[in-house]
Amino acid sequence: MSSSKVYTISSAFPNGKVDTARLTLEIGQSSITIAIDYIKTYVDDCTIYFKTDLSAGEWTTMDGLVAVHTGEPIPHNSETADGRSVVRQTIVNTAVAFRPRSISFKTADPSTLHNCKPDGTDYDDVTCKCYDANGDEITQAPYTGAVKTVIDFEPEYYYEMIGGGVDIPTTITGGTTNQWYGSCIGVPDIPAESGGSIDLINEVNLEADRDGILTLDGRGVLGLAYSETLHTNKIRFIFKHPAGVSERLQLLFEIFR
């Protein structure tokens, strides 16, 4: 069997709606022995992910839970014992778990890309490429002619990004060469006229930063759904630098999934 399943919200759930917190609780209280990973809802799809494969019997149980799920939020006490109001806030739309990510690499050297899980295995959702002054990719060392290093982040799941940052070494901060710039494009594989190639961050002069870390907070949520063919959740980070100069940078993502 599999570790995930997609349910159509409008037809599989009796009231045509899902409350992920309630459904997570209902799964935890059921006879299903495999731990749930997360639940993702997008448009009319609700995808339920478990840590490992469920048996046929457990999927039957899951189908039964979906069939009786009301979609109503779990009641919470609206007042404390002394009568003060309790306010619940959220900063995301449908994601339920905070999953920050970090990616480190050196400019002009794709072999230095580090994008690993706590157990040391690669997430395999990031690429690092270098380009020369003509815009041609340099596919093998030496990378002495590289003036642009490009990082593509494309995980195979829906996620919501609320902010992030980049660690900048002291060898760059406070410089005066005006050759170190960083920018970011959302959904770069789709033309701008079709709603893609979004300028998320215009070129920022990394030398102008004095603190060694550039932090960005959009004070909102950017929700991106994965598509293997359209690449609708890909984010591209572009770093321009002096030819062949290799400096360590680290990207930090604040994402929910």
Question: What is the succession of H and E elements?
Answer: EHHEEHEEEEEEEEEEE
Estimate percent helicity.
Answer: 10-25%
**Major sheet description:** 6 strands, antiparallel
Strand content: 35-45%
- The overall strand count is 14
- Shape type: elongated
Number of domains: 2
Q: What is the helix tally?
A: 3
Instruction: Please report the first level of CATH classification, the CATH class of the largest domain.
Output: Mainly Beta
CATH architecture of the largest domain: Sandwich
Low-confidence segments, given as residue ranges, are: none
Distance between the termini: 23 Å
**Helix-and-strand structural type:** mainly beta
Please list the strands of the largest sheet in the order they lie side by side. Answer: 7-6-8-13-10-11
Integer average pLDDT: 88
What is the C-alpha radius of gyration, as a whole number of Å? 22 Å
CATH topology of the largest domain: Jelly Rolls
